[in-house]
Design goal:
This protein is mainly α. Helix content is 79%, strand content 2%. The protein has helices at 3-7, 18-37, 43-55, 62-77, 98-210, and strands at 9-10, 13-14. Strand 1 and strand 2 (13-14) form a beta hairpin. Helix 3 (43-55) runs antiparallel to helix 4. The longest helix has 113 residues, at 98-210. It is rod-shaped, with a radius of gyration of 57 Å.
Length: 211
Amino acid sequence: MAQNEKDLIVDGYCFRTEEEADTARVEKERVSILEEKLNYDNIASVALLYEKAVRNHVFVTPVGIVFLAKIQTFLKEHDRPEALICIPVDCAKRPVAEETQDDMEHIVTDEEELLIQKQEAKMERLERELKEQKELVKEKEGRIKMGNYINIALIVVILCLFFITYMGENANVLNYKRVLTDRYASWEQELTQREKVIREKEKELQIEESK
C-alpha cells in the first residue's frame, strides 16, 4: 500500500482526502483527552458535554461520532432527556458502480445459500440421530421381550424340577414302607416256623419221657 493511502486511514476508517483524515486524527486526540477527564459518576456533567458537542458539531467524522454514540447510550441507560438529541451525520450520497452493487448482491445470495446448506445439513443430522435413537429403542424393547421369555421359561423349568423332586420323595417313602412291610412279614413267617419246630421238639421230648 502506498504511503499516501496509509495516511488516509485513521482508527480503521479510510477517508477520501487528507483533510478528512487530519480532522479524524484531531477528533481521536480530543476523544482521548475527554475519556481521561470525563467523570461518568457525574451524569449531569456527561449530559452537558454531550449536548454541547452535538449542537456545536464538535465531532463530524466516524471517530468522534462513535464516541458520541457511546455517551448517548450511557445517557439512555440513565433516562436522561439529553439522550433524545440526535447525533448529526453527514451522509453525502455517492454513486455506487453497478459492478459493486452486483458483487454485494452476490455476497448476500452466497451467504443465504450457505445458511440454507447449513440448515439442511443440520436437519439431516438431526433426522439421522432420531433414526438411530428409534433403532436403539426397538433393539432395547426386543431385548426386554426376550428377557421376559427367558424368565418365564426358567420359572417353568424350576416348577417342573420342584414337581419331579416332590414326586420322587413320595415314591421313595412308598418304597421304604413297602420294604419295611415285606421285612416284617418275612420275620413273622420265620418266627412262626421256628415256633412250630420248637413245639414239635417239645412233643418229641414229652413222648420219650413217658416211655
